[in-house]
Amino acid sequence: xxxxxxxxxxxxxxxxxxxxxxxxxxxxxxxxxxxxxxxxxxxxxxxxxxxxxxxxxxxxxxxxxxxxxxxxxxxxxxxxxxxxxxxxxxxxxxxxxxxxxxxxxxxxxxxxxxxxxxxxxxxxxxxxxxxxxxxxxxxxxxxxxxxxxxxxxxxxxxxxxxxxxxxxxxxxxxxxxxxxxxxxxxxxxxxxxxxxxxxxxxxxxxxxxxxxxxxxxxxxxxxxxxxxxxxxxxxxxxxxxxxxxxxxxxxxx
Length: 253
Ligand SMILES: [Fe+2]
Description:
Blueprint: E1 2-6, H1 14-21, E2 32-35, H2 43-54, E3 59-62, H3 80-93, E4 96-97, E5 101-103, E6 106-111, H4 124-129, H5 132-135, H6 144-152, E7 165-170, H7 197-205, E8 208-213, E9 220-224, E10 227-231, E11 248-252
Parallel strand pairs: 1-2, 2-3, 3-4, 6-7, 7-8, 8-10
Antiparallel strand pairs: 1-11, 5-6, 9-10
Helix pairs in contact: 2-3
The structure holds fe (ii) ion (FE2).
C-alpha cells in the first residue's frame, strides 16, 4: 500500500478536472490518497471530483480547505458552517473519509483548521483582496480567530495506538517557516491567512513524523525538528513553476 499526497486540485478549472478524469483507473487500487483541501467552490464539483478519486484509490482521506467552504456560488443560501456539514456529507457519500485511518503499523490523521493570524495580522490591502472575507459567511459576531478555534477544536488530541507510524495532514500551514525564503516580498502579503501555529502543536502531540499540507500552492519538502512537511499542491493552471502537477508518493510499505 502506497500513500499519495495531493492538495488544491481546484477542479473549478477545466484543465484540473480533466487531469483528474485522466488518472489511471487501475494503478492506485491498493493505495491511499491524502487530499488536503481546496477541491472546488461548489458542492456539485466537489462530489464529482471525490467520486472520481474514490473510483481509483482504495481510500481517499480528505479535509476541506477554505475554497470548499465558500458559499457565494451555491444556489441555496447557507453559511460556511452549514456548508462544512454538507461538505462532510457529500464527501462521505462520495466514498471519501474525514476520519483517522489505520492500516497495520500506519495511522493517518486529518487535522481541520483555519488561519488565526498567528503568522501575522492582515493589513488593509489583504483584507481588500482576500476572497474568503467575502466568499465565506460565518455566524454573527464570529471573528476569524473564532473560526479557527472552532475547526482546530474538532481535531483528535490523543495519539493513535503506540508503535504506529503517524502521518497527519491539514489544508493550512502549521508553521510559517514552511514558506521558502525566495518568496518575493509582495507575495508575503498573504502570510497572515496561511495557517495556524496551533496545528504544529497538535500534529506533534499526535506523534506525527510526516505532515502533508496545502493552501500555499508552493511545492515543498522540509524536515524540521523530526517532522517532514510536504506540500504537493496541484494549484491553478498558470502556476506551473511552483506546482509539480502530479501525484506524489509520500509513504510506501
Ligand atoms: Fe486554500
